Amino acid sequence: MNWFERVQEAIRREEAIAVATLIRGPEAWLGAKWIVEAAGDGLEAGHPELDPRVQEIARRYLALGQSGTVNLSTPEGEVEIYIESHVPPPLLLIVGGTHIGIALTALAKVLGWRVYLIDPRRAFATPERFPHADRIIHAWPDEALPERITPHTAVAVLTHDPKLDDPAVIAALQSPAFYVGALGSRKTNARRLERLRRKGLDEATLARLHAPIGLDIGARTPEEIALSIMAEIIAEWNRRIPHVRAPEDQEVPA
Fold first, then answer.
1. CA 2 to mean position of chain CA atoms
2. CA-based nearest residue to 17, from 51, 57, 58
3. Fewer CB within 10 Å: N-end or C-end of the chain?
4. Would residue 160 be called left, alpha or beta, if left means φ above 0 and alpha means ψ between -120 and 50 degrees?
5. What angle do CA 244, 217, 111 make, to 5 degrees?
């Protein structure tokens, strides 16, 4: 697979990838390319002097989701590298075609997130009720969640039905999702935690669960609850996902 096919495949799979291209320097080096993938894999250009430096810098740009140029000094002279990042928006997986889910989908899209709705109940999960969802998946959450979760994924479990909620929470907590939240009162959550303990989840895993879901803003309506959920998700996103300062002019992100 060449570099172009590799980038195409990453974009198709909605995976982050960066391409670095040498655009100024010795003529024999012009057009040299490096690939950096979020999973840690990459493609070197075959220049021992530049390979590790360019890949390190490209990873910083990829973490930012930014593109730009950087100048590097080599024994053969100064070179200029253009780094282009392809980063899909973060993904919100909503379990449950509820009124809160409708409001949460609309709000998340306004904020630039991709949103998938998961609910095996076709009467609840319809395009008419969820016109803003990028994808509607009619499947049981424990089957649909694992293959779709990455470290850039948040999961909001909203059904209020243990038959759906518990398998969804278990699958999400055992995944690399950066956020897992579940709807319900403190009493409901206490009962949920006891059920999950009986199913073998340890305290460290259970501590990842945000429940009751959302920031405590006194929310009452579905729209207010959606706002509290999205605020908590964004707060966790900004805390957990590494952020470094943006490139300025020719400076390399630190």
1. 26
2. 58
3. C
4. left
5. 45
Q: Which helix (H) or strand (E) holds 239?
A: helix 222-240
Q: Report the alpha-carbon distance of residue 17 to residue 10 in Å, rounded.
A: 7
The pLDDT tens digits for 107-160 are 999 999 999 999 999 999 999 999 999 999 999 999 999 988 888 899 999 998
Looking up tokens 């198709």 gives: 12
Best CA proximity match to 36, nearest among 12, 13, 53: 53
Which strand ranges, in their side-by-side order, compose the sheet holding 114-118? Answer: 135-137, 114-118, 91-95, 153-157, 179-182, 209-210
DSSP state of 157: E
Q: Would you say 132 and 115 are in contact if contact means Cβ atoms under 8 Å apart?
A: yes
Which residues share a beta bridge with 20? 34, 83
Q: Which CATH code of 3.40.50.1580, 3.40.50.720, 3.40.1190.10, 3.40.50.11600 fits the domain covering 91-240?
A: 3.40.50.720
